[in-house]
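Bit of a strange request maybe. I'm writing a small parser for C-alpha cell strings and I need a real example to test against, not something I typed by hand. Could someone generate the C-alpha cells for this chain?
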Amino acid sequence: MIRKLSQISLGVAAATVLMISAPTIHAQETFLNSASGGAVRDPFGNCLLSRGGSPLPECLPAVAVEPEPEPEVLMVSLDAGANFDFDSATLRPEGRAALDRLAQDMRPLTVRSVDIVGHTDSIGTEEYNQGLSEQRAASAADHLVQRGVNPAVITTRGESFRQPIAPNRIDGRDNPAGRAMNRRVDIMVDAQRTQ
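Reply from user aminoacidic:
Good idea to test on real output. This should exercise your parser:
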C-alpha cells in the first residue's frame, strides 16, 4: 500500500514538473481531446498538450482586448451678445475666437459628428427667425470648416425662438438680457480621443 502511494505521488510530481516545464505551444502541438470532445486536463485543470489532438479554443491563452475608448461629447454655446450683432448672422470677432478655440480643441480628437443649432430671441415672426437661426448655424459651420473641421461630419439646423434658455419677457415687459442669451448657437461635438 505504501509503495502504491509512492508511485501515485511520483506520478503527480511528474505531472507537476511537466506542467511547470511545459514548452510553449508550437504550431504542430495541439491539445488532447477527450471522447466527449472536451479538453483532457491534469489534476490542476490545465489542458494537456499532444502532437495529434485538435486545437481547443478553451485551452488557448486569453487575448486581452482593449476596450474601445468612451466617446467624448463637447457642448459649446455661443451667445449672440458676444458673437453676433442683433438681427445678424455675421460672427463678431469674439465669436470667431470662440470657434477658433473649439476647432483647436477638436484637433486631437476623432470627430464623429458636429451638430450646430442656431437660435434667436422672440422679436419678429417665427418664419423670419427660423431663417436667421439657420444662417447663424451655417455661419458657425463655415468658420469651423475654414479652421480644418471636416464638413462631412457637420450638420446644421435652426430652431428659431422655440428653445429659449432665458425669458424673452418678464411680467409682460421686454427682457433684453434674456433675449441676448437666447440669440445663440449651440454646438454638440461627438468625438473620441485619438490613441
